[in-house]
Amino acid sequence: MHRLLDEALAGVTMTPERQDLKEEIRADLLARVAELRGQGVPAAAAARRAVDGLGDLRALVEEVDPDVGTGTAGARAAGPASARWAELQRKNRVRPRPAFLVRAVLLGAACVGGLAVVALAAWHDDVPLGGRLAAVVVVALAAAAITADALRQETTGNYPMPPARAGGYGAALGLGLLAVGTGWQYVPQGAAGWLVAAVVPLLAGIVLGTVLGATQTNRRKAWVLEVAAGHAHVGDRFERDPEAAARFGIYTAVTWIVAATAFVTLTLTVGWAWSWTALVAALATSMLTLAQMLFAPAPQERGADSTD
């Protein structure tokens, strides 16, 4: 609902009076969404129905302070960019929640402790294998929890990320760290099996992070968009064509699944000397696919450029 409201008022210069009206509209929308949710309407549909039910929000807000281009309001809006940014940051500042800071400190301490054990194991062989693996798991879980928790917090410039998506980003980071820690056991152990065991979480983390990144929507608040409205922005294809972003996520998943299969097969047959080339090929293919899909014109644009 917050995103739909910002999109409906995109480009409208916000004065204190208009901001107050927007917050009143936001409160009405929240009440309407809660009412619709109580009737069994899904969250996304309830938000869209509530926003659509208010009609032309831009015209409603622009009726307040119509002389925004002149006088005091116009001078404030046209002030230096740095001063304008500082003023809006101060006005919209969101203080971190004390509970979040406590969790971050505790999880950070656990992460540092795990890293200390991993570093000690790299220099001393007498650290038990179980202790090394436990330290790797602690580092991965702590980093994943910190990432997910941070993304779920509202900031001065961003709305909070939904818990499921925030957890997905945390899981992607945790899987990557778990893969690095598992592969690191190859150094003291000298067994290629540790490298093979690291491939599965590594590929899972890459695929999950790629899919989440390709489907991520804008979380910027209205005042941030307002400050940036005067700057030219060249959107990529993923912003214009969400279906292309979804296809890229599928292509990436298939590419790395095939690469993982090839890596394991080559490691067990011809050895590590050649199996790593499967990962290099997968990375190159993913980069080429990204370049092709990210900056290619959207289908409707190609159709508009063609002639009969």
Fold and architecture overview:
- The chain is mainly α.
- The model is unreliable at 67-80, 231-235 and 298-308 (pLDDT under 50).
- It folds into 3 domains: 2-70, no CATH class; 100-205, no CATH class; 234-301.
- The chain contains 16 helices and no strands.
- It has helices at 2-8, 16-38, 43-53, 57-62, 71-77, 81-91, 98-123, 129-151, 163-184, 186-189, 192-214, 222-228, 237-240, 242-269, 272-295, 299-305.
List keywords for this structure.
308 residues; disordered C terminus; 16 helices; mainly alpha; elongated
How many angstroms separate the termini?
42 Å
Alpha carbon gyration radius:
25 Å
- The percent range for strand residues is under 5%
- Which class best fits the helix and strand makeup? mainly alpha
Overall helicity: over 70%
Number of helices: 16
Main beta sheet, described? Answer: none
Can I get a quick summary?
With about 300 residues, the protein is mainly α. The protein is built from 16 helices and no strands. The chain is elongated.
